[in-house]
Amino acid sequence: MFTGGADGNGHLPRPRRPRRSGVGHAGVMGSPHGQVASGAHPHPAAPPCTDYDVAYFKAYSHIGVHEEMLKDHVRTSTYRNAIMHHKDLISGKVVLDVGCGTGVLSIFCAFAGATRVYAVDASDIALQAMEIVRENELSDKVVVLHGRIEDVNIEEKVDVIISEWMGYMLLYESMLGSIIFARDKWLKPGGLILPSHASLYMAPVTNSQRYHDSIYFWRDVYGIKMSSMMPLAKQCAFMEPSVETISGENVLTWPTVVTQVDCYTIQAQELETITGAFKFMSMLQAPLHGFAFWFDVEFNGPVRQKSKKQPSQSSDGNAQNTSPSSKKKKPDVSIVLSTAPEDAPTHWQQTLLYLFEPIELNKDQIIEGSVTISQSQQHARFLNICLKYL
């Protein structure tokens, strides 16, 4: 657990969306039996479905989880905009929606002209998704599969994979592994993945109001001294990462990138442990209360190889060399979904690791260290966080 001090560990023990205990994000269970998506990847083996997974999927049958996600206008409208932005790559194609929930992204893809959409979800919300598809008269295009993506049988390759897989701090819930599985098993070479890229950021923060509300409150409660409660209050408030909304004013300096994910190439083993070093210079004289984490995702098309051409000739007849970087056409940066403090709030908010004791920083003071994020040995959907700083 995160304990502050010079060496802290933390874990995110609860599911993503709602604050109520036991509510998590729908993973996947479905029905395809396809071939290997690309010769570069071996046929993936399905991981076992644990009791934790069963509880995780069951949690996503709660309507409140999906209501919160759908009411997140930033999230849902950005996905819709991204789908319409890539309409030319979706129209007339086969789409796989991993963790479809109520099926909203699948329906957006159908509106964009997809020939067929496989909407896969392990949660019982898939039963409601079937009704929603029928209600919108899309049963001829959208096929809802109730099951885990690692178990379903789809007898064709797909052109597009779409999923809203991001958890708190980007990687909580470890749903990205299911996207990798689906990619390696069903995605055609050169296919589209939405979102395509993700970045996790961190920065030091100050938040005196949080300490005032949770800790200093105990100094005087209706005229009664309760300072003896403060150690327990700190333990309860700061022992685990806190998911809450802060503003850009709380951030002490420019963020650093902890890790970046390319959904076209990332491998599952790369997610087991991620380590990043940081070195910040405080832009303010203010107390350091902890560190905040947030992420953004990009919706870029696949990198396409240019067709081979003969070297072009200059006016004097000599061949002109082409730089190696020009052999591939880079995708245009299109649409970004950001959960940064300075951007419009989302249901992901930001994830904060608070120190038990604030540190008074001077302007231009250096804070450096490292953060390691690893999947829990007991349950891969949980994260262990080790933060070291000076």
CATH architecture classification of the largest domain = Distorted Sandwich
Helix/strand/pairing category: alpha+beta
> Which range best describes the helical content: under 10%, 10-25%, 25-40%, 40-55%, 55-70% or over 70%?
10-25%
Helical run tally? 9
**CATH class designation of the largest domain:** Mainly Beta
Distance between the termini: 19 Å
Mean pLDDT: 84
Biggest pleated-sheet summary: 6 strands, antiparallel
Overall 3D shape: elongated
Number of individual domains? 2
CATH topology of the largest domain: Hnrnp arginine n-methyltransferase1
What's the total count of β strands?
17
Unreliable runs: 1-41, 306-331
Radius of gyration, whole Å: 23 Å
β-strand amount: 25-35%
CATH superfamily of the largest domain: Hnrnp arginine n-methyltransferase1
Helix and strand run: EHHHHEHEHEEHEEHHEEEEEEEEEE
Pfam families: PrmA, PRMT_C
Function: Arginine methyltransferase that can both catalyze the formation of omega-N monomethylarginine (MMA) and asymmetrical dimethylarginine (aDMA).
Protein name: Protein arginine N-methyltransferase domain-containing protein
Organism: Miscanthus lutarioriparius
Write the layout of secondary structure elements.
Blueprint: E1 7-12, H1 51-59, H2 63-71, H3 73-85, H4 87-90, E2 94-98, H5 104-111, E3 116-121, H6 125-135, E4 142-146, E5 158-162, H7 176-186, E6 187-194, E7 197-205, H8 208-214, H9 230-238, E8 242-244, E9 256-262, E10 273-281, E11 286-299, E12 304-305, E13 328-329, E14 335-338, E15 350-361, E16 366-375, E17 383-389
Parallel strand pairs: 2-3, 2-5, 3-4, 5-6
Antiparallel strand pairs: 1-17, 7-9, 7-11, 8-15, 10-16, 11-14, 11-15, 12-13, 16-17
